[in-house]
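Q: Convert this sequence to structure tokens.
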Amino acid sequence: MKFLLYLTMSALLFGCAVKREFMADLTDATLIKIDVVSRYPDKKYKMLTWRTTDHIDYITYESITSTAAIGDVMKVLTKR
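A:
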């Protein structure tokens, strides 16, 4: 019975330690739009819309005091 317990415990421990690979590429995303939104009743944020060359859009939220200009470039991870 102890052997079965040890076997089960070792299977659980080694099962959680499996290495997983994530295949991704770093691509450039260009800032295309800046909006001011209220995410909470008392706080306003900038909603930045970024677009890659593959026409994939990403949205990030920044504080209202952050500085960003249309045309800025940022690196993002995209799936292969």
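The beta strands are 24-40, 43-52, 57-63, 73-79.
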